[in-house]
UniProtKB/TrEMBL annotation, chain B:
<keyword id="KW-1133">Transmembrane helix</keyword>
<keyword id="KW-0479">Metal-binding</keyword>
<keyword id="KW-0812">Transmembrane</keyword>
<dbReference type="GO" id="GO:0006508">
    <property type="term" value="P:proteolysis"/>
</dbReference>
<dbReference type="InterPro" id="IPR001915">
    <property type="entry name" value="Peptidase_M48"/>
</dbReference>
<dbReference type="InterPro" id="IPR052173">
    <property type="entry name" value="Beta-lactam_resp_regulator"/>
</dbReference>
<feature type="transmembrane region" description="Helical">
    <location>
        <begin position="6"/>
        <end position="27"/>
    </location>
</feature>
<comment type="similarity">
    <text>Belongs to the peptidase M48 family.</text>
</comment>
<protein>
    <submittedName>
        <fullName>Peptidase M48</fullName>
    </submittedName>
</protein>
<feature type="transmembrane region" description="Helical">
    <location>
        <begin position="78"/>
        <end position="97"/>
    </location>
</feature>
<keyword id="KW-0482">Metalloprotease</keyword>
<keyword id="KW-0472">Membrane</keyword>
<feature type="domain" description="Peptidase M48">
    <location>
        <begin position="117"/>
        <end position="180"/>
    </location>
</feature>
<keyword id="KW-0862">Zinc</keyword>
<dbReference type="GO" id="GO:0004222">
    <property type="term" value="F:metalloendopeptidase activity"/>
</dbReference>
<dbReference type="GO" id="GO:0046872">
    <property type="term" value="F:metal ion binding"/>
</dbReference>
<keyword id="KW-0645">Protease</keyword>
Length: 127, 296
């Protein structure tokens, strides 16, 4: 089932999916990114114009801001909505049963032994 | 009726034992669906069986129900104690189901609130939080919630794995399977192991979809490892009830070759799950005859 190999990969990403990836890339770093940097980061042969279009759409939704004082043309993520969400998340955590733990979570807890094994795995990969 | 009526209980034990095995050897997409369906069918049959045992109590009240036809000659196959125990168990099941449904509703409401301040037509919901978390929020449309701490910890390819993984949860409606298995386990506690197997399998399924989307199982394994280590460092509020070795097992599965679909094993589990309702139906007929005074 997972045998699509390295070929049919990232080419067929929908506009919504690309929006998520651009937004994720902007949130992953502390400094503003230019469209060219985002293009390099996301890869998959994405056209510069496409990156521009996506940034425009995210800007119209109020999810990203043009960096005013920094380099021209650079973007950074807008914090408002994300802070509201974070606050709601922390409130939910304080209130009691964790709603996210009840759902499918990407990852869950580790024992110290497992932790060591995973570190080794990543160290191998980086070498 | 004597045997039929008890066998759905025995079969739920069998399913509880077969579940983890199916999960180990069959592709997760097949195994998760088959096990969730089998759990629901078995829980339904088990509950119905208890209804039958409880209803057999009526057979102990000859003048009201049985009529004069046979004069109470037919031996009552269900002792009154068992009938009473069945009624009590049904009450417990009712309470458990109610609690499970409420917990489910509460979770969904809390998750909807998390997206309140976000534009409607955006897939990714970022929370500006130092707690590393990521999860899929089912609904229309489904959303992916990730905290800034989690995004910052992953590399570009690993972020793509994370998004593809959560997207798979939403696209294949994994919440439905998990909820179905949870309700089945609430009605029939013997099925609790099946519930955890289904929860594990939907994660494996999403991992496989992510590996296919990114085109690389190794990157997918690394993304999982990195995310797990990050979550660990971030205080792992969630680690409490996940003492099993789920993440390491998922990573190991990604490092091995993908499991075959094994239709025959899946069919065997499905066949197993059709037995409880068949036997329950047979028992129903017997009870009906008993109550109406027809010969057994």
């Amino acid at each position: 089932m997972a045998g699509t190999g390295s070929r049919g990969r990232a080419e067929r990403r929908s506009a919504g999916e690309l929006e998520s990836e651009v937004l994720a890339a902007l949130w992953a770093t502390d400094r503003p990114l230019t469209p060219a940097e985002i293009q390099a980061e996301i890869g998959g042969g994405l056209a510069y114009n496409t990156v521009h279009t996506i940034l425009k759409r995210l800007y119209d939704k109020g999810l990203v801001l043009r960096d005013a004082d920094g380099r021209r043309g650079a973007y950074r993520p807008a914090k408002n909505a994300a802070e509201v969400t974070a606050e709601a998340m922390h409130q939910a955590l304080d209130r009691g049963p964790d709603p996210i733990a009840a759902l499918q979570q990407f990852v869950t807890g580790l024992s110290s032994e497992e932790e060591r094994a995973l570190r080794e795995l990543l160290a191998e990969g980086d070498a | 009726m004597r045997f039929d009526v008890y066998s759905p209980l025995a079969l739920s034990l069998l399913l509880a034992a077969a579940g983890p095995l199916t999960g180990r050897y069959v592709a997760p997409a097949v195994a998760a669906r088959v096990l969730a369906a089998a759990a629901v069918v078995t829980a339904g049959a088990t509950t119905w069986t208890l209804v039958l045992l409880g209803a057999a109590l009526l057979g102990d009240v000859p003048p009201l129900v049985r009529g004069a036809g046979e004069g109470g000659a037919a031996a009552d196959p269900v002792p009154a104690v068992i009938g009473l125990a069945a009624c009590l168990t049904l009450v417990v099941i009712g309470v458990r189901l109610r609690r499970a449904v409420r917990a489910e509703r509460r979770t969904r409401r809390a998750l909807r609130q998390l997206c309140a301040g976000q534009p409607v037509d955006t897939e990714l919901v970022v929370a500006a939080s130092a707690v590393p978390r990521a999860c899929a929020i089912p609904g229309r449309p489904g959303r992916i919630l990730v905290t800034s701490a989690m995004l910052g910890a992953l590399g570009p390819a690993e972020r793509r794995v994370l998004l593809a993984h959560e997207r798979a949860h939403l696209a294949h409606r994994h919440d439905v399977l998990v909820t179905a298995a949870a309700l089945a386990a609430a009605a029939d506690p013997l099925l609790c192991p099946v519930r955890s197997t289904v929860a594990y399998l939907v994660e494996r399924w999403a991992d496989e979809r992510a590996a296919a989307a990114v085109g690389d199982r190794r990157t997918t394994a690394h993304a999982l490892a990195r995310a797990a280590l990050t979550a660990q460092r971030g205080g792992a509020v969630c680690a409490l009830h996940f003492a099993d070795h789920a993440v390491t097992r998922r990573i190991a599965a990604l490092q091995a070759a993908p499991q075959p679909s094994l239709g025959s094993a899946a069919l065997a589990v499905l066949a197993l799950s059709t037995l409880p309702p068949l036997l329950a139906a047979d028992a129903t007929r017997d009870l009906f005859r008993l109550l109406t005074g027809a010969p057994l």
